[in-house]
Design a protein that fits this description.
It contains nine helices and 25 strands. By secondary structure, the chain is of the alpha+beta class. It catalyses: a UDP-3-O-[(3R)-3-hydroxyacyl]-N-acetyl-alpha-D-glucosamine + H2O = a UDP-3-O-[(3R)-3-hydroxyacyl]-alpha-D-glucosamine + acetate; a (3R)-hydroxyacyl-[ACP] = a (2E)-enoyl-[ACP] + H2O.
Length: about 475
């Protein structure tokens, strides 16, 4: 999985009919800056409102996932979002001149092709992964649906579907490497059972559906004259099925388990609404949009709780700044040069590493015989980590001193001992104004929170 965020190199558009609204629309993918995420924009409405691709904005799950914000509604977003996740594209503005993305052929492949044609561009910011820290479970006994997310330092998905149908047997599909999305998942099309068609039309859905953008599964005997009725319903001159049961118009499947693969595609798109790239093992039995979104809400609740949002330190990876580069940015020297490495840095956050050893000078007098790192020095190390973030936010850091001018909500949760490696993460909580910036900081040892504080820093120009 990519370490850096990505956007597209240029704008690119696709045009087609919406599956459920039946409205023809043009959808344009537009490059966006780091940490922008996925946002839709209804350019056909007054003031061109923005709709964040966020699970909190889901308002309808009738045969697709619909989001709404600022008085604007976007229908059936899952295929579009799946294409972006599958290509590991993080930041895009998706402009629409209608209420629903084009259904195209019922899969994500046309979006994937368009995005690849636009080109993918790496950005100078790290991906803000959320690593699921614990077992997350959703179950609906009425529909016999069950989804779980398990801790994993990767993103893998497995789906099982079972419709008790003689046409579709129980099917499984897996994606163990997100880079295989284009080849293994993207072209798998949406599907519907013949017995569902009339009901969907009565519900004012699939107005744009036809045999070019959905697989229709004939799961029962077709009565005399029914095919003529279906041809009128689907606006086709003729529909047929060679057998009493099968696929309407005898459409060839891309894969024997194309239905399970499409359900996996939907799952990827719906989980994109968590708002951050995920690291987890996802297992889904008989998933649907309602269950997918329910799991996404549980994961987002974990994010809000702070669980799992712990920076990971891999000593095998080259740091962003080593000790010498840190010394070029910060004026601190022995015995007050507290940070050994910077391992992550983007426009809004920084992660630093402090290796605590018994040779630290302060252990000579701080609790002799029971060496514990002083809390004020933990705070100093956190502030120096934040100082790196503040200095790198200006084009000429050599001309400034970063000063800590305010501390609030400071807590020391656990003792820090010699031999510990403390991972500090600092994030901007407000934009810099007149050289003043607010940050939140946390320190972790072995995944456990040891200290936290809100800080205010000031950049003062050197005389």
């Amino acid at each position: 999985m990519n370490e850096k965020q990505q956007t597209i190199s240029k704008s690119v558009s696709v045009t087609g009919v919406g599956l459920h609204t039946g409205v023809v629309a043009t959808m344009t993918f537009v490059p966006a800056p780091a940490n922008h995420g996925y946002k839709f924009q209804r350019i056909d409405l007054p003031d061109q409102p923005i709709v964040d691709a966020d699970v909190d904005n889901v308002v309808d799950l009738s045969r697709g996932t619909t989001i709404e914000q600022n008085g604007a509604r976007i229908h059936t977003v899952e295929h579009t979002l799946a294409a972006l996740v599958g290509l590991q594209i993080d930041n895009v503005l998706i402009q629409l001149d209608g209420p629903e993305p084009p259904i195209m052929d019922g899969s994500s492949i046309k979006f994937v092709d368009a995005l690849l044609d636009a080109g993918i561009e790496e950005q100078n910011a790290y991906r803000n992964y959320f690593e699921v820290p614990e077992y997350v479970h959703y179950m609906n006994k009425e529909t016999d649906t069950e989804l779980v997310a398990l801790p994993l330092s990767d993103y893998r998905l497995t789906v099982m579907v079972d419709y008790n149908s003689t046409v579709i047997s129980s099917q499984h599909a897996s994606l163990n490497d997100i880079t295989l999305f284009k080849d293994d998942i993207a072209e798998c099309r949406t599907f519907v059972f013949l017995h569902e068609l009339e009901a969907l039309y009565r519900q004012n859905l699939i107005k744009g559906g036809d045999l070019t953008n959905a697989i229709v599964i004939v799961d029962r005997e077709v009565r005399d004259g029914e095919l003529d009725h279906l041809s009128q319903l689907l606006s086709k001159p003729k529909v047929s099925v060679n057998k009493s049961k099968g696929i309407l118009n005898n459409v060839d499947l891309h894969y024997p388990n194309e239905m399970a693969r499409h359900k996996l595609l939907d799952l990827i798109g719906d989980l994109a609404l968590v708002g951050r790239p995920i690291k987890a093992q996802i297992l889904a039995a008989r998933p649907g949009h309602a269950a997918n979104v329910a799991l996404a809400k549980k994961i987002k609740k974990l994010i809000k709780s702070g669980k799992g949002d712990i920076p990971q330190y891999d000593p095998h990876k080259a740091p962003v700044f080593d000790i010498n580069q840190i010394g070029q940015l910060l004026a601190h020297r022995y015995p007050f040069q507290m940070i050994d490495k910077i391992i992550a840095l983007d426009e809004n956050s920084v992660v630093g590493v402090k290796n605590v050893t018994i040779n630290e000078q302060f252990f000579l007098g701080h609790f002799p015989g029971n060496p514990v790192m002083p809390g004020v020095l933990q705070l100093e190390a956190m502030a120096q980590t934040g100082g790196i973030l503040v200095l790198t936010s200006v084009p000429d850091p050599d001309n400034y001193w970063p000063y800590l001018i305010g501390i609030d909500a400071c807590r020391f949760r656990r003792n820090v001992f010699p031999g510990d490696t403390v991972i500090f993460k600092c994030e901007f909580t407000s934009p810099m104004k007149r050289g003043i910036v607010k940050m939140s900081g946390r320190g972790y040892v072995a995944g456990q929170l040891v200290c936290e504080a809100d800080m205010i820093a000031s950049l003062v120009k050197k005389k």
